[in-house]
Amino acid sequence: MFKDRIDAGEQLAKKLSSYKDKENVVILAIPRGGLPLGAIVAKSLNAQLDVALSKKIGHPFNKEFAIGAVSLNNIILDDNIEVSIDYIEKEKKRLREKLKKRQAQYYKNRFPIALKDKIVIIIDDGIATGNTIRVTAQLVYDQKPEKIMIAIPVAPKSTVQKLRNATYVDEVVCLETPFNFQAVGQFYMDFDQVSDEEAIKILEDFNS
């Protein structure tokens, strides 16, 4: 469906063109894979660009399967998960240590953009369970923005519906909701990992 993240970012930017040149729009990219798309969308809309820092909580027997997500201030867990409270507490502590380090990397020379009264568009390169983006939306909601949007190239239909039902999300834009969804990468011809160094450089270059 997408050649690479640049192609996906350009397609998202076209879909969001009604927000071009509005003064209070902030693009909030989820590192690391969301940053190449976020930079393209922010440039196209003439908007500000920042990052949202959160990490998924993996299942104890399959770390790739997200059972929740954590930010520096919030935690969200899937309903009906049979995982011990002890495991959740340990993971929360471990992931928050990682997030503190990542915050120090991404905000070496600047402060996060204040999101109060802003139209915040949260962008990632695609989502599976949606847990990471949901905890990000909760984090943004606490800052009292004017509007919270989620914009992604690809996601399962059920996840998009779950996001649309969330009280703290005003709008969801998703380009494709394929039936046979297994992983985000299957819908990209080129889905190379984005390193922290690359993501930080994209952010710094945009804001320089």
Key traits:
alpha/beta; 3-stranded antiparallel β-sheet; 6 helices; 23% strand; PRTase-like; glycosyltransferase activity; transferase; Phosphoribosyltransferase; glycosyltransferase
In short:
By secondary structure, this protein is α/β, with parallel strands linked by helices. The protein has helices at residues 5-15, 34-45, 85-106, 131-141, 157-165, 196-207; strands at residues 25-29, 48-51, 54-59, 62-71, 75-77, 119-123, 147-154, 171-176.
Topology diagram in text:
Elements: H1 5-15, E1 25-29, H2 34-45, E2 48-51, E3 54-59, E4 62-71, E5 75-77, H3 85-106, E6 119-123, H4 131-141, E7 147-154, H5 157-165, E8 171-176, H6 196-207
Parallel strand pairs: 1-2, 1-6, 6-7, 7-8
Antiparallel strand pairs: 3-4, 4-5
Helix pairs in contact: 1-2, 2-6
Protein name: Phosphoribosyltransferase
Domain Phosphoribosyltransferase: 6-183
Organism: Arenibacter arenosicollis
Can you characterise this structure?
- The chain is an alpha/beta fold and 208 residues long.
- The protein has six helices and eight strands; from the N terminus they run H-E-H-E-E-E-E-H-E-H-E-H-E-H.
- It has a single domain (5-54, 112-207), classed as 3-Layer(aba) Sandwich (Rossmann fold).
- It has helices at residues 5-15, 34-45, 85-106, 131-141, 157-165, 196-207, and strands spanning 25-29, 48-51, 54-59, 62-71, 75-77, 119-123, 147-154, 171-176.
- The strands form two sheets. The protein has a five-stranded parallel beta sheet, with helices on both faces.
- The longest helix has 22 residues, at 85-106.
